[in-house]
Design goal:
The strands form 2 sheets. Strands 1-2 form a two-stranded antiparallel sheet. Strands 3-4 form a two-stranded antiparallel sheet. The protein contains 11 helices and 4 strands. The longest helix has 32 residues.
């Protein structure tokens, strides 16, 4: 069910992207692109708002699915916010709805962090158009701000959300107690940093896809050119490594392994820090 929860969050993010981009000229041209599959060249406003209604329907309807699954599978809905794990009673529709909203909100913050990092990497390649513009449209107003504001925003938003939700979650019995202000601020900082820990999946995934695309031709879709350029930016500091043997280049693989190891080290440190904060 945890996988189903993540898939429903992904569907919600796609609906959010469709809502933001519907009715606008195609940003990324060419067959097989995500935007070309999401919408036609022109769309009526009523159809555009239909995506937002569909998103609301997913968020409101999935607690019904969770209540049935909780009984049949003896499953407890959980929400992982980095080192914090929150459990929600499956016999309370209101709490299941809260879980649905918070789960999507956390996925949205992670998606924002991913989008801002990809935009920053695209800027290093001096490629402001194409997929970077699509990512800016997904971010909405945030995508129109300077990159120095975009990058820390998911971290700050996650920290602020934790600080704001601590009292309501404590009153519902989901959190054990309201911490003192210094402890609350420390917890909020740890949760905010945890938003960035999901980047190990993005960066390692881009590097592995670049490695595969180097030796296997998947067509001329713009997404593959974007992945190749972005992965090239990530491995640029490692070009000096003697890991090229003929036509084989293991630099992306080594970079992915290094990113994964560094991020796991951060996760371990944050988990220990959170444990010391009595939660």
């Amino acid at each position: 069910m945890a996988l189903v929860d993540q898939l429903l969050n992904l569907i919600g993010l796609v609906l959010l992207l469709a809502w933001r981009t519907a009715g606008r000229p195609a940003t990324v041209r060419g067959a097989g692109t995500l935007l070309s599959n999401l919408k036609p060249a022109e769309s009526r406003p009523t159809k555009r708002w239909g995506y937002l209604l569909a998103l609301a329907g997913v968020l409101v309807a999935r607690p019904i699915l969770y209540s049935v699954a909780a009984v049949g599978l003896n499953w407890t809905p959980m929400l992982g916010l980095g080192p914090a794990a929150l459990a929600f009673r499956a016999d309370d529709p209101g709490r299941l709805l809260l879980h649905s909203l918070l789960s999507f909100g956390w996925a949205w913050l992670i998606a924002q962090a991913w989008a801002t990092v990809l935009i920053a990497l695209s800027a290093l390649e001096r490629e402001p158009e194409g997929w970077s513009r699509l990512l800016r449209e997904f971010l909405g107003w945030l995508g129109r701000t300077p990159i120095w504001f975009q990058l820390p925003f998911p971290l700050l938003a996650g920290a602020a959300a934790w600080a704001a939700l601590t009292l309501p979650l404590t009153s519902l019995g989901i959190l054990p107690r309201v911490p003192a202000m210094p402890e609350l601020l420390a917890q909020a900082a740890v949760v905010g940093v945890s938003v960035w820990l999901s980047l190990k999946w993005l960066l390692a995934g881009v590097l592995l896809l670049r490695l595969v695309n180097t030796y296997i031709y998947f067509g001329n879709a713009p997404i593959w050119d974007f992945i190749h350029r972005t992965g090239g930016t990530l491995i640029r500091p490692l070009f000096w490594l003697p890991v090229r043997f003929g036509k084989l280049d293991f630099t992306p693989l080594i970079a992915a392994a290094a990113i994964w190891a560094i991020w796991l080290g951060f996760e371990t440190g944050l988990a220990r820090a959170f444990a010391r904060l009595n939660l």
